[in-house]
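Dear H.,

Thanks for agreeing to be a second pair of eyes. The structure we're designing against is below in token form, covering all 399 positions.
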């Protein structure tokens, strides 16, 4: 029988919800490219419940215990003596969400001799040292597509809120003001602007589709070119370098995974290619950007605004400059963990576990690493190597 260690974020400060704002959520069974939403044999939770926090347990306890397995759930993941570290010695599976990632570094993997699989309940497995997983023959799987559309909604929301200066204007209301001139002296329309996405995978393409009705000019950079029919339908300009995309875009959004090729792709040097006053929205991964270069670009006016929900490390230490830099619209990492998304990735996690325990193949599109090499979405969207360096700084959040 297996021991499964599941690292989840803390419950709400006022306790686990007893009721919710809405009584139901739409039932999404298929994604835009025809891929089906997760299909576990059953679920033991009500769709729309809070599943990603410790008491929600991703809805897995009944299923796992009925099969004789042991489930350990904790939010204590950082620092040398964390509960996660204490449980690794006999763990067979580790599950965590990118919002509150269990950084599975080579050091942690070495402490877990029985570890066979690391599951990302969500999308984006950069918190695992993929090279170390390949070297040990550990399977890494994620729930591809589960929250791609959720994130795309957040991207569009944050683009509009930066360009239209929404957050400062909202704050004037809270402060009791009616300061029209203060609000509008940084407010523009997105109509007619050039908007570009770095990566046009599931999220990036969705963002392009959602933006089309705003009558903007759309651009993308991706190592996989989109079909001509899609380029034509959305009137897309394809770029083969970040420099060429950044030079013409008023708004840029990052939608590629973090892997050795993309780490710190936005830095002091590449920011010089951006138009002065460009907006940057990053809901992909914090480490795609050089943290201090972003803060400096906002201070100098090279960037007019920065928003997103991803930081490095997570949780972000109290003194992380993105908490206090000017003209930002950051949220904690939430875009992919709406209650709607949680329903899908909890079901997807169960589907992956059912396949694993029944010795059935895990869907190819869910695989990041298998059999010592990148597989599935990992082979399509990642490069081999490790991007977890510096993640031990997450322990600073507690101090
Ligand atoms: P996807 O696999 O469908 O798309 C990724 C795209 O990135 C692919 O088209 C790939 O070709 C492209 N790409 C990879 N390396 C590139 C490079 N060097 N240059 C240009 N393009 C490159 O994945 P997705 O569902 O669109 O998700 C993308 C990423 O978004 C995830 O890996 C994750 O890091 C992040 N994400 C964040 C949240 C959140 O809650 N904020 C949720 C889901 C995903």
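And this is the sequence the design step returned. I haven't edited it by hand at all.
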């Amino acid at each position: 029988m297996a021991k499964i260690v599941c690292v989840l974020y803390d419950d709400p400060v006022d306790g686990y919800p007893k009721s919710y704002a809405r009584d139901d959520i739409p039932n999404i069974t298929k994604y835009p490219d025809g891929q089906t939403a997760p299909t576990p044999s059953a679920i033991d939770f009500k769709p729309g419940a809070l599943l990603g926090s410790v008491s929600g347990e991703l809805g897995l306890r009944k299923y796992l215990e009925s099969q004789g397995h042991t489930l350990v759930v904790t939010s204590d993941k950082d620092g040398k003596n964390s509960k996660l570290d204490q449980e690794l010695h006999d763990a067979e599976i580790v599950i965590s969400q990118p919002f509150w990632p269990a950084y599975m570094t080579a050091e942690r993997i070495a402490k877990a001799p029985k570890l066979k699989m690391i599951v990302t309940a969500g999308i984006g497995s950069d918190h695992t040292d993929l090279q170390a997983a390949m070297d040990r023959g550990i399977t890494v799987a994620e729930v591809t597509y589960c929250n791609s559309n959720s994130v795309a909604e957040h991207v569009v929301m944050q683009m509009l809120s930066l360009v239209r200066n929404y957050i400062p204007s909202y704050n004037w209301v809270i402060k009791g003001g009616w300061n029209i001139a203060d609000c509008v002296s940084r407010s523009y329309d997105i109509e007619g602007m050039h908007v570009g996405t770095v990566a046009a995978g599931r999220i990036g393409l969705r963002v392009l589709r959602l933006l089309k009705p705003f009558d903007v000019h759309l651009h993308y950079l991706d190592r996989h070119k989109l079909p001509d029919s899609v380029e034509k339908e959305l009137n897309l300009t394809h770029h083969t370098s970040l420099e060429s995309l950044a030079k013409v875009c008023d708004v840029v959004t990052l939608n590629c995974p973090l892997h050795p090729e993309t780490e710190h792709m936005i830095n002091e040097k590449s920011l010089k290619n951006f138009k002065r006053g460009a907006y940057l929205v990053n809901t992909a991964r914090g480490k795609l950007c050089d943290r201090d270069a972003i803060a400096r670009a906002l201070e100098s006016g090279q960037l007019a605004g920065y928003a997103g929900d991803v930081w490095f490390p997570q949780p972000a230490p109290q003194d992380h400059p993105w908490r206090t830099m000017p003209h930002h619209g950051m949220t904690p990492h939430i875009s992919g963990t709406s209650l709607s998304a949680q329903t899908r990735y909890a079901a997807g996690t169960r589907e992956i576990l059912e396949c694993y325990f029944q010795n059935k193949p895990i869907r190819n599109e869910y695989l990041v690493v298998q059999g010592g090499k990148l597989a599935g979405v990992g082979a399509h969207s990642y490069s081999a190597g490790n991007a977890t360096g510096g993640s031990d700084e997450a322990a600073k959040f507690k101090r």
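Two observations from my side: The mean pLDDT is 98. The first helix runs from residue 61 to 66.

Warmly,
E.
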